[in-house]
Amino acid sequence: MSRKAARFPSPDLVRAVLKGHSGLGIAFAAILYLVCLTGTVAVFLNEFQRWENPDLPRMESFSGDATQAAYRAAMAQAQAPVEHVFVRMPQEDRPWPMLRIDTEDGQRTTWAADAEGRLLPVRQGWTEFLARLHINLHLPQSWGIFIVGLTGVALLSSLISGLLAHPRIFRDAFHLRLGGARRLQEADLHNRIGVWALPFHVTVSLTGALLGLSAIIIGALGLAVFQGDTAKVYALFTPPHPVEDVRPAAPIDLGPAFAEIASRAPDGRISHLAIEHPEEQGAAVMFEVEGGSSRLVNADTYAFDRAGTLYYEQKAADNNVGQQILGSLGLLHFGWFGGGPIKIAYALLGLGLTYLAAGGVNIWLARRRDKGRTAPRWERVWAATVWGQPLALCGAAFAALFTPSITIPIWVWGAISVATLGMAAILAVTTICRSMRLATGMSLVALAAAHFMLFGTGDGIALTVDGGLVLTGLFMLATLAGSISLTERKALLG
Asked: What is the C-alpha to C-alpha distance for residues 462 and 447, in angstroms, rounded to an integer?
């Protein structure tokens, strides 16, 4: 046997493995970029829900009688035994109640309601699409949430490794090498954004990892402390279930529970309630009542059985550390506390984090280019990913204007994503970037115009969202026009 034949691994195998390794890295970086991008937009999820439903009635409160009427009307429409009913009361950035029924066959139906408790159809094709894309990538929920949780771990690890790899990063926090090599400029900006917004980056990545991997964390705690009984772990942080009694019964009456809440927390504000197995003798209803505390998690919990008897009470001031952490994870992750200024700050910081997710791969590709190991195929794929996703999200929002279903936006987003990746096979990187920026800028303006023509001026927040879309689109077009030559402009426009 010759030396060449005995050589293992062969050069061809090494090249194939390296290509596969690069492909896996790009794929995971693309998921991280998508999660960061959708998370930035999801900060304004409630505002987008108002954008989708500018004609819904707005109110500051929802009475117990109206809640009972809406709940009974929803129960009457259920086509299968009802497992849970969730009611979210009006809030400042979504000023109408929402009611959702989960049936035992896995179906979920959601309505809004007016002040008298009459059910109203609600459009949420875009907001539901966006939320699910960020939380579980439209994959089966357990797998999708796990993958998104891993991106949080990867992001946190990248932040820590970046700090350790650049010992002068804090000393050079305001040092930018402008006017030189583009790779050095991008590297400096990448490092500066990483340092300037480090508390935000750590908060978002850590809370994202905990939210995504919570099932694994709880499973590990159950295995380590309670011989695998995860129910005992959940019992440390969540209200207990009532005594199980599956005998059929009429839907639970909410009146006694509302009356008890009014006497126990007269100055409190019910934020939401959950009804468990409403058509069984063991039915129960749990209320979360917000008080005047300045705590991030300031809701007291009350749970009542079918007879309206209180069987569980937990004051926010008495929450243990685990309950405080669990209750604050979502608020800290999405910036859903502190009102509009916090949301705007989260959106701007989220854009910076999205830039970091994209810029890390750009720097890696640039270094390969500087060392004479160019990867033109991956450069084109990455350009199509970075600039294709904003266009795909815009297409999904456009589709949601014409259908209340989430299915059509998913298909539109998927089709545009595949089409933009297909462009990587035939177009140069510069053409990909500029053509997609042009398409996205024009689509954002067209999206706002279409929404205005369909829904008019019924809601100030919806108009604000339209204005934001127009400004974002015009900004993209303006920056594109400033960086493109006349010859290239003619080529793009045909």
From this structure: 12
